[in-house]
Amino acid sequence: LTQELCRVCAVFYPTVLEAARSAGGGDGPLVVSLEPHSMADVLATIELIAGLAGVEARGSELIATLSGSLAAIEQPAVVPSVAVIEWLEPLFAPGHWVPEQVELAGGKPVIGQRHEPSREIAWQNLADTDPQVVVLGLCGFDLVRSLEEWESFPPPEPLTRTSAWRAGRVWAIDGSAYVSRPGPRLVDGVEILSAIVAGRPDPRAVSLRA
Question: How far apart are CA 89 and CA 202, in angstroms?
Answer without folding.
Answer: 27
